[in-house]
Amino acid sequence: MSDLDLLTQSLARNVKRWRAERGFTLDTLAARAGVSRGMLIQIEQARTNPSLGTVVKIGDALGISITTLLDYEQGPKVRIVPADQAVRMWHTDAGSYNRLLAGTEAPGPLELWDWRLMPGESSSSDPHPAGTVELVHVTAGELTLTVDGVDHFVPTGASASFDAGVPHTYGNTGGEPMEMVLAVSVPPVH
Known about the structure:
The chain is α+β, with helices and mostly antiparallel strands and 190 residues long. It contains 5 helices and 10 strands, in the order αααααββββββββββ.
């Protein structure tokens, strides 16, 4: 079985599990996530491989991290994620990518990401739930961080934090690859 098949099956199992745990009908989750009921049915039946944006919306609507959606291995309090098991969620032919390094529920979803953006590339995000905070630390190049339409330049070695409840974009307007570590903290669903 391929990694994509395993990912699709884990997502199907976990969306069903967490939807039931939250007491959400398909219609309720569809409305909360802004995803069609038909798409949710396909996801829960492991018949589709949704976009990263769709997975983020479902996780946000359920109040859980992408890590939890993709893997429901409840084990010891210390969980080691080997480098070869980091999940690459997005990539381009030019070499840009992001990888979900680790995540937990603490008390809401908390995720740690590794990003690389090649010159001239960017990745946009819809607003996350109110109260979501993101922290970035640039390890190479310069990040052009656009938050609610305003550009902020974050050079190598610098860090930034921002309210991710508004549209935001990670971009590389420089001439060399940009690398950063990103943490996302989403408040729990009440």
